[in-house]
Amino acid sequence: MTRIYVGNLPSGATEEQLLSLFSSFGRVRSVKLIVDRATGESRGFAFVDMEAGDARGAITRADGQQFGGRALRVGEARDRAQGPAGRGRRRDPATGRQRGGGG
């Protein structure tokens, strides 16, 4: 199974819409739209789980596709440990204490 990252989603996107879109590329195991815990509003990205063969085709075909007036950014999801640089904890050079990390 392959987890697909789907970004640049419009604010009104739903899991059902994503399921419908990605089902046209193959068998979808699950869809998880990421929402803000405080507001319940979409954070603009989701994860779709598909079989590896179907996922490769879905990534190629869906990346850049218009969805709700926006061009989707689609790729294989990375593990959290491999996430974007700059998101980890760092030591403040002035105090030596850890800072940052968000999450």
Q: From the alpha carbons, calculate the radius of gyration and give it in angstroms.
A: 16 Å
Mean pLDDT: 87
What CATH architecture would you give? 2-Layer Sandwich
User: Helix/strand/pairing class, anyone?
Assistant: alpha+beta
Main pleated sheet: 4 strands, antiparallel
Order of strands in the sheet with most strands: 2-3-1-6
The name of the CATH topology is Alpha-Beta Plaits
CA distance, first residue to last residue: 26 Å
Strand portion: 25-35%
Count of DSSP H/I helices = 2
Relative helix content: 10-25%
Q: Give the number of DSSP strands.
A: 8
Kindly report the name of the CATH homologous superfamily. RRM (RNA recognition motif) domain
Task: Provide the domain count.
Answer: 1
What is the succession of H and E elements? Answer: EHEEHEEEEE
Low-pLDDT ranges: none
The top-level CATH class is Alpha Beta
Shape: globular
Q: Could you explain how this protein is built, in words?
A:
With 103 residues, this protein is of the alpha+beta class. It has a single domain, classed as 2-Layer Sandwich (Alpha-Beta Plaits), CATH 3.30.70. The chain is 19% helix and 34% strand. The protein has two helices and eight strands, in the order βαββαβββββ. The chain has a four-stranded antiparallel beta sheet with strand order 2-3-1-6. 17% of the residues are buried. The mean pLDDT is 87.
